[in-house]
């Protein structure tokens, strides 16, 4: 009996192969071997489980070593202590898909994400807790953050997914880019970061923890760099390897903006120069950007598309030549891994921003020839040979003799995405639409809501972010001969609603939306009030909550006032402040509550006289699925602003009526010189997203 027990125990332990992940000043070390690591960001909720195997396989075929993802707190805990890990929120399934493909994982728990995600990934119920302040030494915040972080770690441990348990995850991240904004938090910010480090370390995940953009990251946290370029980054500890957690492959889009592009040559240049100068871990943000389904886009005004000009486009296609040119670079870097991570380093400065870096061991040498000059090519003489290095490029010579790769010399064929019409059998050339109006009588004519207060509240407080829509309603009574009741009256609203619709006595008097990044504006319209009871109904619409900055949680949304009625006559202007009136609130629209978007909805729809340019209207059509297996897109040009569903699935917000400005685009893009988000723009004078 004794020997049998010993045998069973031995077999059980040997079935899990633990990977030892450590580090020194040169590199991340996996099972005793220093590694050159190429990683790519793929956020699981921005695609679907059906897409994950293909996306991750393409990452591996692109010569990535690892896949990185954030964990989005508000998606997983939309209501306090009620969790959702279903469908595209199945984090464990995503991590196991990475494992199945034989890749490593980088788990950025945060739980602050930024990521142009709604509210930076924080749930709005958190903001509404008494005495709450985010990301500082606030006990309520720290308790909730620790609860969620611990829960995620425990879930991952239960499935043996950390490398220390034989799983794929080699790195974990706590907090995110806090160093960029910590100044206003003062000493509390410094204390908070120390608390984050101690809390993370106490979870015993068995792999290193990283903190990006945190120069004062406490040991043993590894501080890392984010940006378009990180070759000049120096870690805060000689035992920390030079790591780049976000190499921005492009940029995000905002409604009213243009399409940003980062050239293939410049992305490759940034990576090669990073490794030339001692880097050993590079993560592309994004490798696949995907789609901000439902209400997940942040901002405000982040688009539904999160394509990011990444190596894999929004639909999962190869974005060529970016994908192929970077794969070639990865292959060259991997071939040099041992010498890059163990070799002695020497540098030759040729002047005029040209240099050579040589990595040398007894087994051989690797060379990088870099030219950071934006305008002129460099001719480098090295070991009796002459090499021409184009402006703003890096040449890699694995044997220090023969050029294997240059970042500016693209040999990969360029791909173009073509949108073809639906060719499914018997599909008409135009869709047949039915429609029905949003039922607003209770709001517009009765001013009836769910709750009543004698003040104006921030939209987040009332809705708990359960909807983009919030009605603010009040009634105003005028006597028949009220001296205030005149001909020159107007309604004036100080608004932080992203979009505002105003109604008086059932009549739509106008709408307004925030422009040019100014989310505080004044809406004012002439109104004819009547004697007796008047109903004012204001519909505030959010288009993604703020996701970045110090104390971003306190940025207002909705209508915080003041709101007033103004009467102007020859002698004077009289102002009637309505801010402290009795206001009635109603979250959402009736059509959402009645789930008109469901395919099995029994609500009555009309096919007669389908209206155009009619606000607050539901439209519905059917189509046959296109033939083949290519991605399907819905072109919503011709619609104004709203939300779209396919087969009951919320595919996100649309706003093709929001046109970008005519100026700022370039027919050609010069890859040379530092990239920034306003460089290489296209799509001027067109809808930001169709």
UniProtKB/TrEMBL annotation:
Glycosyltransferase recorded as keyword: no
Catalytic activity: Hydrolysis of terminal non-reducing beta-D-galactose residues in beta-D-galactosides
Full protein name: Beta-galactosidase
Family: Belongs to the glycosyl hydrolase 35 family.
InterPro entries reported in the protein's UniProt record: BetaGal_gal-bd, Galactose-bd-like_sf, GH, GHD, Gly_Hdrlase_35_cat, Glyco_hydro_35_CS, Glycoside_Hdrlase_35
Segments forming domain Beta-galactosidase beta-sandwich: 356-410
Signal peptide per UniProt: 1-18
Domain Glycoside hydrolase 35 catalytic: 28-331
